[in-house]
Structure formats: structure tokens, C-alpha cells
């Protein structure tokens, strides 16, 4: 039996590693990868809360399942935007995007 | 006890890969280590006996999203691939470190001091049966999820159309 605190500490660590990457990196794809880390830590928390605190119910299970689908869609659209930005500005750094209209 | 050992191995893999993932300069390496983090998270789900969730994690994240990242990296920038463009500023790294550590301390203290930890039940040893998941996913009663299921299919369709609209080449008229 794994103590429930271990899972909380693991997901908090993962969340703040992703936060650190999001704050420090200036490459659009690297920032998106950091967002994936943050989403994964949230998913771990949903699954753990459901499994250990409320076994017998399935709310957290389905929430993390749907969150996976939403993050897949979000990644697809964000990568489309990044490719478009690169095509127009020839750079993939956030500093190069100064106004929203090309 | 075996579970605890497996958890420690998975935690080391996840945290180590995540640190390398955010601190490496080469973007391709970051994508590769993201893949290891995703596999580790899938292992956590298997450890919790949520095998369906772990399989979905592997097939959606590791199979789909990582492929998408690799294609995007190959399409976007040759200079970034070779690790020449990303420069990390020392000041920003220190500020990010401090902010992350303060946030981490706050969140960990809140989680560990809270009362709900005392409610921690004995974790069930058997996995959730597939029949139960399927009935809950496609039923329309209370605590059943056919409405979000249908909604997310419409949402994915909207995202496919939106992605094509954004990423296609504009005709120069």
C-alpha cells in the first residue's frame, strides 16, 4: 500500500517542474511541452483522488480521460498555430510575436 | 512493498526525465524525455489499477501527441534542432527557480496538512472492470457520461477543422 502523500508530492513536483519550464523557456514548442507536463500532473491528481479517497466512484477517472482528449486537441491546434507563426515570421521564439495580426 | 518499489522507480524516472526535459537546450531531446515522462505517468495509472486509463495514456499521449511534436519540430526550425537558438538567461532561470520552489512549498504544505488525507481508504486491489467503465461512459443516467462523450467528439471535429484552417497555406490573390 503506497501512502497517498507520495502521489501528491510527485504530482506537485511534476507541476512545478512544468511551471519552471514554462517560465524560463522562450521557444514555443518547449513551452507547449511544459504545458503537457502540467496537464499530466493534474491528471495524476484526478486519478489518485478518485482511487484512494473515493474508490467505487469513477468521476476522477473520467475527468482525466476527457482531459487527455482535450489536451490532444489543444496540442494539435497549438502546433498548427506554431507552424503558421513560423511560416509568417521565420522564428519560433515568443519574443518575435509582437502583434496578433500578420 | 513491491508496489512501493515500483512507485519509487516510476517517480525517479518521471522526475528525472521532467527535469532533463525542461532544462535541455535541444528541443528534440526535450520531446524524447517528454515521451519518458508520459510512459512513467502511464505506469502510475497501471500501479493504481486503472489499466484502461494507462492504455489510453499510452495510445493518446505517447502514440499521438509525441508524434505530433516530432513532426512539428522537424517542420519548424533547423537552427533550433541543432540547439543554437535557445539561450537561457541566468536571471530568468533564478527567478523561475525561486517562484517554482515557493509554489511547490505552498502546495505541498497545503496538501499534506489537509484533513482529507485521513480519509484515505484502503486501495482496492482489483482493477475496475471494463464493463463498468463502458456502461458509465455510454449510459445516460446519473453518474454516467454519454453527454460529455458526445460533446468531446464534436469538440475534436471542431479542432480538426480549426487546425486545418489555421495551418493551410493562404492563397495569394
Describe this structure in words.
The complex is a heterodimer of chains A (102) and B (173). Chain A is mainly alpha-helical. Chain A contains three helices and no strands. In chain A, α1 packs antiparallel against α2 and α2 runs antiparallel to α3 (59-89). The termini of chain A are far apart. The model of chain A has no long low-confidence stretch (mean pLDDT 86). Chain B is mainly α and 173 residues long. Chain B is 74% helix and 0% strand. The termini of chain B are far apart. Chains A and B meet through α1, α2 and α3 of A and α1, α2, α3, α5 and α6 of B.
Estimate what percentage of residues of chain A fall within beta strands: under 5%
Main beta-sheet annotation of chain A: none
Count of alpha and pi helical runs of chain A: 3
For the terminal residues of chain A, how far apart are their CA atoms? 56 Å
Number of strand elements of chain A: 0
Q: Which outline of chain B best applies?
A: globular
Which protein chains are joined by the largest interface, and how many residues does each one contribute? A-B, 72 and 84 residues
Total strands of chain B: the figure is 0
Ends apart, CA distance between termini of chain B: 68 Å
User: What is the C-alpha radius of gyration of chain A, as a whole number of Å?
Assistant: 17 Å
Structural class of chain A: mainly alpha
Can you give the mean pLDDT of chain B?
85
Shape descriptor of chain A reads elongated
Please render the helix and strand layout as text.
The complex is a heterodimer of chains A (102) and B (173).
Chain A: H1 4-24, H2 28-53, H3 59-89
Chain B: H1 2-23, H2 27-47, H3 51-76, H4 78-81, H5 90-113, H6 130-138, H7 146-167
Amino acid at each position: 500500500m503506497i501512502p497517498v502523500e507520495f502521489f501528491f508530492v510527485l504530482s506537485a513536483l511534476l507541476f512545478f517542474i512544468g511551471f519552471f519550464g514554462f517560465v524560463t523557456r522562450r521557444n514555443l514548442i518547449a513551452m507547449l511541452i511544459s504545458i503537457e507536463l502540467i496537464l499530466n500532473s493534474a491528471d495524476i491528481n484526478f486519478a489518485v483522488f478518485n482511487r484512494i479517497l473515493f474508490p467505487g466512484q469513477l468521476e476522477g477517472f473520467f475527468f482525466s480521460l476527457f482531459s487527455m482528449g482535450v489536451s490532444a486537441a489543444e496540442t494539435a491546434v497549438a502546433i498548427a498555430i506554431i507552424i503558421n507563426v513560423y511560416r509568417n515570421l521565420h522564428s519560433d521564439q515568443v519574443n518575435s510575436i509582437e502583434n496578433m495580426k500578420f | 512493498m513491491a508496489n512501493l518499489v515500483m512507485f519509487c522507480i516510476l517517480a525517479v524516472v518521471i522526475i528525472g526525465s521532467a527535469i532533463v526535459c525542461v532544462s535541455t537546450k535541444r528541443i528534440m531531446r526535450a520531446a524524447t524525455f517528454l515521451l519518458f515522462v508520459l510512459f512513467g505517468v502511464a505506469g502510475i495509472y497501471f500501479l493504481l489499477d486503472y489499466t484502461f486509463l494507462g492504455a489510453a495514456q499510452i495510445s493518446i499521449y505517447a502514440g499521438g501527441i509525441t508524434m505530433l511534436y516530432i513532426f512539428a519540430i522537424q517542420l519548424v526550425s533547423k537552427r533550433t534542432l541543432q540547439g543554437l537558438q535557445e539561450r537561457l538567461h541566468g536571471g530568468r532561470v533564478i527567478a523561475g527557480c525561486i517562484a517554482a520552489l515557493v509554489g511547490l512549498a505552498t502546495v505541498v504544505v497545503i496538501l499534506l496538512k489537509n484533513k482529507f488525507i485521513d480519509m484515505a481508504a484502503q486501495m482496492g486491489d482489483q482493477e475496475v472492470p471494463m464493463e463498468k467503465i463502458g456502461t458509465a461512459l455510454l449510459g445516460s443516467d446519473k453518474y454516467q457520461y454519454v453527454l460529455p462523450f458526445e460533446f468531446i467528439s464534436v469538440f475534436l471535429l471542431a479542432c480538426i477543422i480549426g487546425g486545418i484552417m489555421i495551418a493551410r497555406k493562404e492563397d495569394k490573390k
